Automatic annotation (TrEMBL):
Its EC number is 4.4.1.8. One of its GO terms (molecular function) is cysteine-S-conjugate beta-lyase activity. The modification N6-(pyridoxal phosphate)lysine is found at residue 210. The lineage of its organism: Bacteria, Pseudomonadati, Pseudomonadota, Alphaproteobacteria, Hyphomicrobiales. PANTHER family: CYSTATHIONINE BETA-LYASE-RELATED. It is an enzyme of class 4 (lyase). One of its GO terms (biological process) is transsulfuration. This is Cystathionine beta-lyase. CDD domains: CGS_like. InterPro entries: Cys/Met-Metab_PyrdxlP-dep_enz, Cys_b_lyase_bac, PyrdxlP-dep_Trfase, PyrdxlP-dep_Trfase_major, PyrdxlP-dep_Trfase_small. Belongs to the trans-sulfuration enzymes family. Its cofactor is pyridoxal 5'-phosphate. Keywords: Lyase, Pyridoxal phosphate.
Length: 398
């Protein structure tokens, strides 16, 4: 089996997903790694304990199960190392704590995931970090915002809920010239459809809660660093005492095996519905980066190799007074789409997006923004369900 690693280096993504992250011969041939639950790890003698000269030393510092997942993620990201944390939000906050200090300035994209903004506006600000939000379309123009104390540039593309694209390579190039760390929340694309480190990003962030889990039952985050930033990231997670559990790691590794084929289905169904919605008389516009009419589509086409299954649309309303009533009528008429947060699971979800936190990418003026997570169900059924929503929304009078 010695040449398996070489084979996988040039293999297709589904082959790599099926075969990375564990070595069956290490576990008597069993194809999946064992779930090793641990706090204590024993040392054979005092000298080994004193020098910590063995692979595993304590549960928070890794187990064979968490290592198997980290190895699989590193293979997908092309990273020097990956840490596991208990949620996607922690996958953002831990690297911010790792790389920012009091007196630093951080540039955060305005279309960021709201809880990230909340962390920046509360804890990070309280710690003495100055936070400034920037336009996702800024590209190399970010240079004008960089101050002598700017230390970190955070990107997220597409943006949360409204899906604005970012020129990640241009932003990274400028940020590095000024000595900044570039972080990216790449949850939407997964490393299958965009590899941040290949585009100059230093720290790739994922809510593994979404597509890697795939079944709406696990919370986990992964943070992967390039060689230059790995040590500092690793040190931070050890210092904070934040780690992912072996049981959850096992489930995420299990999810990775089918993530490629699931994503193909999410992509195909979501695009099918997005194109249908674009032509729908009750839809003002569709916010999906893979649609040629969407601003930022050129960047998506240039840099991304696929699209996942979550996008939004703006519901048509004739009067502003109808906004909430129509949006609620639409949601309440749905049978298959559940009303719930999160995404990336097998089941479809819908919600009305709130954008009152934005300072640059404001709420579309035309009507409410409805976000759809397209699951693995049959498209004709999802379409029928959405039609019921449109009929209910249209029945609302001003
Ligand atoms: C883009 C993005 N990043 C991070 C997260 C946080 O993930 P978690 O729910 O695991 O904290 C989410 C959750 O919705 C998200 O949409």
């Amino acid at each position: 089996m010695s040449d398996k690693r070489d084979f996988l280096a040039t293999a297709g993504v589904n082959t790599r997903l099926a075969h990375t992250g564990n070595v069956p011969s290490d576990y008597h041939g069993f194809v999946n790694p064992p779930i090793v639950r641990a706090s204590t790890v024993l040392f054979p003698d005092a000298r080994t304990m004193d020098t910590r000269a063995q692979k595993y030393t304590y549960g928070t510092r890794g187990t064979p199960t968490t290592d198997a997942l980290c190895e699989a993620i590193d293979a997908l990201e092309g990273s020097a190392g990956t840490i596991l944390v208990p949620s996607g939000l922690a996958a953002v906050t831990v690297p911010f704590l790792a790389f920012l200090s009091s007196g630093d300035h951080a540039l955060i994209v305005d279309s960021v995931y709201f809880p990230t903004r909340n962390f920046c506006n509360t804890m990070l600000t309280r710690m003495g970090v100055t936070v400034e939000y920037y336009d996702p379309a800024i590209g190399a123009g970010i240079e004008a915002l960089i101050r002598p104390n700017t230390r970190l540039v955070h990107t997220e593309a597409p943006g949360s809920n409204t899906f604005e694209m970012q020129d990640i390579s241009a932003i990274s190039g400028v940020a590095h010239r000024h000595g900044c760390v570039v972080t990216m929340d790449n949850t939407w694309a997964t490393p299958l459809y965009f590899k941040p480190l290949d585009h100059g990003v230093d720290i790739s962030i994922h809510a593994a809660t979404k597509y890697p889990s795939g079944h709406s039952d696990i919370l986990m985050g992964t943070v992967s660093a390039n060689a230059k930033h790995w040590e500092q990231l690793h040190e931070a997670t050890i210092t904070l005492g934040i780690c992912g559990s072996p049981d959850d790691s096992y489930q995420i590794l299990r999810g990775l095996r089918t993530m490629g084929v699931r994503l193909e289905r999410h992509q195909e169904s979501a695009l099918n519905l997005a194109r249908w919605l674009e032509e729908h008389e009750d839809v003002e516009r569709v916010l999906h980066p893979a649609l040629p009419r969407f601003p930022g589509h050129d960047i998506w086409k240039r840099d991304f190799t696929g699209a996942s299954g979550i996008f939004s649309f703006v519901l048509k309303v004739s009067e502003q007074a109808q906004v909430k009533a129509r949006a609620h009528a639409f949601l309440d008429a749905l049978s298959i789409f559940g009303l719930g947060y999160s995404w990336g699971g097998y089941e479809s979800l819908a919600l009305v997006v709130g954008l009152s936190d934005r300072t640059i990418c404001k709420q579309p003026a035309e009507g409410p923004v409805i976000r759809l997570q397209i699951g693995l169900e049959d498209v004709p059924d999802l379409r029928r369900d959405l039609e019921a929503g449109f009929a209910a929304a249209a029945a609302v009078s001003a």
